[in-house]
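User: Can you help me understand a structure? I only have the sequence.
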Amino acid sequence: MKVVLSLILSLVLTFSSVAQALEIRQFDRMSDDDQIEFVDQLAQSVQDSVQGEQYARVKRFFQPKQPGETISGMGQFEMNLSLARIADLEAVAKNPKARRLEVEDVMYVTMEKNGIRLPKNFRPAASHFQAKNPTTKRVMTRQDADKALAETQAWVSRTVEASHRPLPTQGAALSDNEKAIAFFVALAALVAVARSAGGSDNSSSSGSSYDDHSSDPWWQQNGYATYHDAVRAACLGSTTAANPTWCD
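Assistant: Let's start by predicting it. Here is the structure, written out as tokens:
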């Protein structure tokens, strides 16, 4: 009985994580307050997933920017979100079947890139999020995305004054924009590549259109055991001799 209950709980948690995933283009339509609440819940889910040394690192990562610090942890997330937005538009312009990038992708990659070891099957989730304000109908264009990137870079690079004893600074630098965009484009393209290789009609050899894996997370539907495996595949896919990986 305990095994059955454990399995049911695991399935519920997995479904909640996937069901709550939010595409960047949908996030951009939300009010500022709702965006802040959504990101706060993602950050909290990361914090709740780790213990010990990793917990301390996550707590420090989400601290406000400190005097002398080039960029804070949340500043890195904001930069990566701006770069992923551009990549999302580029990927879908090249291939309409590309998976639309999600805010959860950005949070996960930002953690991994900073050496924070997350549980094997973990993906950030704002499982309890509910928008409190109306969304807008505006759709971001590439020009809008470029403007947002410039504004974000100016904000995260700002100098802060010491209002209290500063915490030890984090040694992170600003993102390499072109490498980051190439990575996020590769992450968006993973589903399109798998569909092209395996066929897009999801039909079985008997001709039936039923797909008993249709409720699986997108990474499992496309041949990756974990979300982490899909992210690493995107890292490899964006790596060339002229463009070494941005992920490490």
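Now, to help you interpret it: The chain has one domain: 2-158+171-199+214-237. The first helix runs from residue 2 to 19. Let me know which part you'd like to focus on.
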